[in-house]
Fold this sequence. Notes:
Blueprint: H1 2-22, H2 30-64, H3 72-101, H4 107-110, H5 113-138, H6 148-169
Helix pairs in contact: 1-2, 1-5, 2-3, 3-5, 3-6, 5-6
Amino acid sequence: MHLARLAIGLGCVWMLDVFILKYIKKEITKEKYQAIEFLSKFVLTGLGVLWVSGLLFIIHYYLYTPENLMNQKIWGKLFIVLILTVNGYFVHKLIIPKIKNSIGSTLLNTLTVYEIMIVTAVGTISFVSWLFPIVLGVAKTLNFTVSAIDIIAFYFVFLVVAAIIANIMA
């Protein structure tokens, strides 16, 4: 359930990112905004379920297999999901309202260059931060072999590379 929810969240986030990129130069209609709002709420729900199931894993490990809490991969994933959660806050407080204000126009016409950079940064963080925990979850060879610091450092390197690519493409 945990990995499935993460995969569904990733799929919805990527659909949302593609939708926004596709319509950055096209008029935002009320229907397009409603689709974006629906997807964003679905992602938010998925994030909530992800937190609950992840914390249940930690509680289970604590009660039944405390040695699993020494797996640094868990703490690296937890850090990344925390970043994902903070980023989700910015999506709902900054990005979604900007899109709503663009109804009847295009994002390119209503956003400043700075705001486009923020949308790009938030989208990049979202894209990378949903993907990374999935990769970590299925990478069993990393269990007990890599430190949380190494995971987080690699995550930030990957994030910087993705941000550079996103800004080139924007």
